[in-house]
Amino acid sequence: MPESILSQWHLWERWDLVTISIVVHLIIIFFFISSSFVRPKKIDFRSKGILTGFIIALYFEMYGIPLTIYLLQPFLSEYLIRLYPVPFVLRMVGSILIFIGFINIYLGWKKIHSQNRMVKEGIYSVIRHPQYVGLMLLTLGQLIQWPTVTALVLWPGIVWIYYRLALMEEKEAEQQYGKEYENYKKSVPGFIPNIVSGKLLLQRKKSSA
Known about the structure:
Elements: H1 3-8, H2 15-32, H3 49-64, H4 67-83, H5 88-112, H6 130-145, H7 149-177, H8 179-187, H9 195-208
Helix pairs in contact: 2-3, 3-7, 5-6, 6-7
């Protein structure tokens, strides 16, 4: 590996940072990301397998051993020098996506765990799956901040799995809540927020303040 790449990033082989980063993110994944609409009765370990692999692979390379650079250096050494570390502008974009993603996850978790019924208020009045959208944004931001071959392969799988999981949960919600959920589904988008519904939410907050 060229010395110039190594000299630009001094945090490789920092196994303390690898461990801390993985543990913190796994706590978020297993305890703050819940099923949609209602408080979950137990943790769904199956849907979190690929997500766990993504987090471990990402931080293993970011602070441990840069496998992607080792693999690609013989073919793309000139481009790797420009890419690692990622330019400041891209790091900022990644940070913004991570922040927005975490806010979505937290607001969704807070609403779900504050009541024992189907949630339609707060951020759930803007999109039906705020936690899953937040998860996709958070992992995309991490991928932008530190792109690796493994993460690039796993991220589309994360999006697909949680999209499919959302569809399955919607079918269950339709069976459990019937007309109430059908009306909610017609008025609130699933993943991409409607600008109008976002404005209405802000107006409600101002009027209730």
